[in-house]
Design brief:
The complex is a heterodimer.
Chain A (H helix, E strand, L loop, with lengths): L3 E3 L4 E4 L4 E7 L6 E7 L6 E6 L4 E3 L2 E6 L4 E6 L8 E8 L6 E3 L3 E6 L1
Parallel strand pairs in A: 2-11
Antiparallel strand pairs in A: 1-3, 3-8, 4-5, 4-9, 6-7, 7-8, 9-10, 9-11
Chain B lengths: L4 E3 L2 E4 L5 E6 L6 E7 L6 E7 L2 E5 L6 E5 L5 E5 L8 E8 L10 E2 L3 E5 L1
Parallel strand pairs in B: 2-11
Antiparallel strand pairs in B: 1-3, 3-8, 4-5, 4-9, 5-6, 7-8, 9-10, 9-11
The chains are: A mainly beta, B mainly beta.
Chain lengths: 110, 115
């Protein structure tokens, strides 16, 4: 079993749709959590950190459930420019090692 | 403010050869991590350097080695290249003395092809 697992995808949604991605992690000692976005053949870019209290950045909302070892990302009012691969990232204590999921690909269509 | 830079952008090597990839971290960052990303997969952690020492290592063989210089830049060396080493190699920098979240910023990567 992988340490970080994401929805297999791909997700194909129309513009304006709401879409949610899920991610589970296996190591309960994990300390910090992130969502990154990666466009085709580009480097990953930090989208947002994920906090236990939940956090929102415009159309994006991230949630963390430590008890269930589960992270989510909700995108509201999808735009064509949201088309990308979304990577879930889990850091261990001391942040020495980051573990990435394999990503979920989102395609937003007109 | 310069972001993370990597060189070269592309590289083609023959099986058995050795390769060195270079990374300069974002200004103000002191920690460099290296990742290997195969097609269709997420980045896999190779190792992390801080204060010129390897601090953490992922599940990669000793053929993968690195170095960090006093100016925080870093090199990744891979010896005895295998076909399976073909991948995008990403460097990420962070500020270890900053927030506990250790947000990482990635360079554009070096695409290595082993033939």
């Amino acid at each position: 079993r992988k340490e970080v697992e994401q929805d297999p995808g791909p997700f194909n949604v129309p513009e304006g749709a709401t879409v949610a991605f899920n991610c589970t992690y296996s190591n309960s000692a994990s300390q910090s959590f992130f969502w990154y976005r990666q466009d085709c053949r580009k480097e990953p870019k930090l989208l947002m950190s994920v906090y236990s209290s939940g956090n929102e950045d415009g159309r994006f909302t991230a949630q963390l459930n430590r008890a269930s070892q589960y992270i989510s990302l909700l995108i509201r009012d999808s735009k064509l420019s949201d088309s990308a691969t979304y990577l879930c990232v889990v850091n261990m204590a001391d942040a020495g090692k980051s573990t990435f999921g394999d990503g979920t690909t989102l395609t937003v269509k007109p | 403010d310069a972001g993370v830079t990597q060189s070269p952008t592309h590289l083609i090597k023959t099986r058995g050869q050795q390769v060195t990839l270079r990374c300069s971290p974002k200004s103000g960052h002191d920690t460099v991590s290296w990742y290997q990303q195969a097609l269709g997969q997420g980045p896999q952690f190779i190792f992390q350097y801080y204060e010129e020492e390897e601090r953490q290592r992922g599940n990669f063989p000793d053929r993968f080695s690195g170095h960090q210089f006093p100016n925080y830049s870093s090199e990744l060396n891979v010896n005895a290249l295998l076909l399976g080493d073909s991948a995008l190699y990403l460097c990420a920098s962070s500020d270890r003395t900053g927030t506990v979240d250790y947000e990482q910023y990635f360079g554009p990567g070096t695409r290595l092809t082993v033939t």
